[in-house]
Amino acid sequence: MTMQIANNPLFIEDLSVEANQITRGLTAKRDIIVRNLGDKTADIDIWIAVGDAKSEPLLGWCTFSKSNPLRLEAKDKCEVTLLFEVPAQANPDLYNYDILIEAPIQYPDKLFRRSQQLRVLRSDRDGEWGTEPGFILQPLTNSANPYLLQAGDNLEVKVTVENRSKRVDRFYLTCPEFTNDWYSIRYPESSIETAGMVQETDGLQLNPGNTGEITLILHPPQFTPAGNYFPTVRLISSNREDLMLLDVVYLQLLTDETLGVQLHPLLLRIPKQDGIFELELTNQGNITREIAIAASDREQLFSYTPEFTAVFLPPRYSSNIPLKVQPRKWWRRPFWGKPLEFYFDIKLENNRVLLLPETPKPPALPKEFSQGTLIWEPRPWWQVWLPLLLLLLLLLGLISVGAFLFWQKTFIQPKIDRLEPVTKVYRQIAAKPVNLNLTLSNWRNWEFKNWKFQNTSKLSTVKITPQSREGTGKIISYGYNELLQFCQPINNQLNCTNLPTETRKAGEYTFKIEVYPQGKNQPSDTKETDTITIEPIDTPKIIQFSSTSPIYRETLREQVLLNWRISNPNQIHNLILTQQNNNAAPVKKTFIGCNPQNLKTQGLQPNPNRIEKINNQEFLVCQGVATNVTQPGDYTFKLEVFSKQNPTQPSDNKETDTVTIQPSPVPKVIDQISPNKLNYEYQEPVFLNWRLSHPSQIKELRIIQQGSDGSNIQNTLPLNQ
Hints:
Mean pLDDT: 83
Shape: flat
Helix content: under 10%
Radius of gyration: 61 Å
Oligomer: single chain
Distance between the termini: 134 Å
């Protein structure tokens, strides 16, 4: 069997008490308990492995009562049964295998292994195995009651061996899982007498049927970690070297919590010596510890700062921690006379304990160790006289500061150092106000307020007044907090850039700036800018407005079409076209560009707005704009353009010359209607001759026949006859 690593949270406990042997053809059972000693839920894989070719059939014989993975909560356990279905043709022999468990996700690199054996007997020769040697370990141990061993102590295990064969045999003992410094084996002394010498043998030789004893001494090396160990003890027979006889010693190495503490030096004189102690911690036990360090004196006169707040100490390791001491209550230092002597205590705590999960409580800490002593020397003589001198200098300084503050508050006022527009020419079309650049000096001063000196603002308000030929514009006032949005303090100057006004209207302006200090109704400084020009927006102008022809004809079903060209199309709000006729009231239509405003409701196709650019100036060009005027008569058309700046008054208008729509001509009888002869026979048809003008304008032709009896007969002739 293998041992469990000291901090392995996985463990296998063997429950089977009967011999590990089975007659071939039967099924063997092996009951074990899988334990999760850790502090978190684990998904545990369980399987068996063999170490030699002879034992490989076990892999096919073995099944488990639980499926993989086996999920166990923290501190939980589960019983698992291993079933070995040994076939009838299996070779009788001793088979070796290991039971392994692992939780690779929750506990990586924590593999637990327990070695086992299964002896397969012949069905008719069970007694043949009675010739194998037997051995017993004393004291008896098991997984539930391991042997408790203090750190540094030894355990003597007596191994009683019985030779059951009919031949002389020599037996050897080994612990394959331990290094040589863990154990020693003592065989009995030789029965051969050598003069003056006592000779020890390297094995136990037994005659048939005899019994002997081998002593196994377990002496764990110093600082071996505390925990549970399960070494496998193997007995080897010289006659049958392939025979492996195994047993297990269950051993629990108890915790050693010894911790050494030393303080160097024990006494320091402050400030003659550097205020650094050195604390030496030595882990003389067998558990890994992490110690938190603190120190304090009774009156908390000094602060104590360790270089490391916590120290990690594996077994047998030591660490030196510098402890820096500094005065906290400096006024308690003696001015003269005897020095102040006092003690301070070191406090140790378990910051984090690395133990097995079942550890009931943290390890103990040393209760008594040396106290540190501090001697605080009196102050030197110059520290007594220096405060008096400083007090005198302080009074002189207060008088000087008061005079400076009075002079600054009374005689130093905010002043305009620089005033200029961002640019001297603006365009009204940009819709941006005039912005100014301004630099102020002496805008703040020092004052004593709320028990401290403050460099506060002396500036209250900056007033901007626009002036033009039309008079004074809207005055804008900026308070100090509003100015900070546009100003930056640079070298005791307040540099303001892009300070906006509300002047956007076209014209020529000058701006007067007045600076008012805190608590004053009169400006401390005034300046005016040079003339600033805001260029007006170019309004739309009608460059050309005419009809496509001066005369239209009704016979061709022509309507009046108009052409116009207008400058600054981006400033056009709308167009109004007025149709005038002598016989009717004027008709007005609103146009957006080249199309009527109600174009969509009329279901008409839009006329494209064409923009021409000549010498960097844009023009709206509309050609062939339909007016829907088709009735004969004389017409004039008036076009008015309205700008976006003043959509109620036209910025320009133009009229066309008189446009005429000629009416269609009236058909007339050119010659007199005459028959082809004057006298006709009864029922002879009458043929008439005539000639008409403008036959294309004739809609219908009617012939009215009047009889002698006064009757009328009306005939309508087709136009193609």
